[in-house]
Protein 1
Amino acid sequence: MTLTRRTFLSASAGLAMVPVFSGGRVGAAPLPRDADIVVIGAGAAGIAAARRIMAANRRVIVVEAASQIGGRCQTDTSTFDAPFDRGARWMHNPETNPMIKLARAAGLEITSAPSGQKIRIGRRYARAGETEEFLAALVRANRAIDEAARRSDVSCASVMPKEIGDWAGTAEFLLGANLAGKDLRDLSVGDKARALDRNTAIACRQGLGTLIAKLGEQVPVSLSTPAGRIVWSNRDASVETPAGKIAARAAVITVSTNVLAAGNIKFAPDIPKKTLEAASRLSLGSYDRIALQMPGNPLGLARDDIVIEKSDSTRTGLIFANIGGSSLCTIDVGGSFGRDLSAQGEKAMVAFAVEWLTKLFGSEAAAAVKKSSATRWNAAPFALGAISAAGPGAQSSRKVLTDPFGCIYLAGEATHETLWGTIDGAWESGERAAEAALRRIGALRDPEPEPRPLKQRRRSSASPIN
Ligand SMILES: Cc1cc2nc3c(=O)[nH]c(=O)nc-3n(C[C@H](O)[C@H](O)[C@H](O)COP(=O)(O)OP(=O)(O)OC[C@H]3O[C@@H](n4cnc5c(N)ncnc54)[C@H](O)[C@@H]3O)c2cc1C
């Protein structure tokens, strides 16, 4: 049966061209010595912050460790016959998600939400009654998490209702590994309960990596320029890179919590202990994507179909098939299973995907694979993981992470209380941090806005959407 109502995916959850700076490479413009505000990282948060600073007519420079813009939004446009989003893929909540408007304005194509979401039980699809049973199990699980979050910040696993019976493994996959890259025992009820509904899964046909790269076209970014050390005070900051130092009146840091906690950027004086602790408590979950080119539609699925498995554990995946009508299919894995698998390398990941598809669809699937690729975000040196997710007791760390120290402001998906783990959360956090930095340097006169009330969650009791 195809889920037709709110579905398990949502259930579980005019500037002139600027020069490209290039870490001191010959032929590129040299790194500027100063700026009003320096931004560390050219992912969604960093690009949003820089655009906001430019809109206020202040000088900004973004230093980016990698050789391209995008961070955890990367689109591979050359390997397959369709763009392959290696990181963020879906834009949720179309009524409020700014990325959809930005994508349209950038001339990119927005797809409609996939119409088919199916549950595979062995070699067949779930029947209507089974699907209803599963949706009811998700509603129960979500409700138990919400209720527990009002009392204390325990693990999601500790409050899973017994009545979800043999759907427990599937619920664990969707609500934990698929939503946050963590098993439910490693996920805080508070973080899960506050996560804004991730209903509707809308993609950008050219890819979300393409989108961030386009949005960054007008932004002065110095690629391959890692910030190694930041000397900061209440007055100013100096960002040290292999290509030289940049002096600024404020800095916005957007690197992932794992990069921050790993100490890959040194601070003088040291970064406040509470900030570093908050980053560690919001460590990144594991979420990876295995891409298979399978001409001839051996899975017999429609364009943009989404399939999950009724599984007794998280040793499972989420299929997105025939992407945009192409022969590209992807399998997403996450949580501790996904972490162990990705640690074994790309070959093992592809082998798992093929074996798993064979179990569910027969051996034709394996024979049809013509090309493959897999992400390994935990090993990506400038990300070190996929999505920040609070462990039990750690939900309050999100607020701590947004507290500025001296003239340093942290941004990035992990600093968003309700949209953590999303591209729009990262974007909004970048704009917010930029505004705070602009206010500090006197470039914005309006008083700091009251903290916005958490957006109302719109989960109906029938909705399994997380
Ligand atoms: C596999 C996967 C699937 C996902 N799916 C979705 C989805 O469907 N929908 C959704 O909304 N979100 C999704 N996300 C989450 C989304 O990608 C992130 O929330 C978002 O991209 C984070 O943006 P950011 O700017 O906060 O961080 P990042 O994108 O990590 O940007 C930080 C930047 O800092 C750079 N950096 C690191 N160290 C240094 C240094 N020392 N000096 C200078 N620069 C440095 C990094 O290279 C990076 O470019 C997914 C993520 C993954 C990994």
Protein 2
Amino acid sequence: MRAPVVAAAVAVMALTACGGGPSAEEQRAEADAARRAARADSVAQAAAAYEAAAFDTIQWASDNDMWERGGVVWSFSCQTCHGSDGMGQGETAVAASLEMPNLVAMDWDKAGDLAAIRRSIYVGHESQMPSWGLVGLKYRDIDAVAHYIDDLLRAEE
Ligand code: HEC
């Protein structure tokens, strides 16, 4: 059993001892905390491995080439959570009640900031955003999909 799971189990037992047992909401919060703790190591590892300068040497034959590649990555790896339009209503996200950001919101804080977008894709987040740099997306794929979000998805809104 992994440490976070044990911690969650202990917390649930402690709640039960207080009488009444945990509510469904408390149990969901515990499960969420355990999932976040399990993801924290990957996020830290990805943050340490991330090399922003690796993007400097990436070249594309044309913008269309880049967007095409980005669209493939998006539909294959991202839209199940972020939705085809980037608003965050993908079926996996809905099924797991994930709190999703709206990547095409007018006031998105990473709009136009390719460096920030690429980094958040590579590194991921405890709240179930995968650490894509560790699970198989190459810098080139990340560059393509970052442009796909910022240049195309956002332009459609
Ligand atoms: C399992 C669901 C899931 C998948 C699959 C997923 N994401 Fe995410 N993503 C999330 C969640 C949840 C967050 C919110 C993280 C946070 O709380 O900051 C997020 C955050 C982001 C952010 C940062 C948003 C912000 O406002 O800071 C970007 C950019 C992003 N995802 C892009 C992608 C791309 C590109 C892919 C595919 C390569 C992808 N995501 C696949 C769940 C997912």
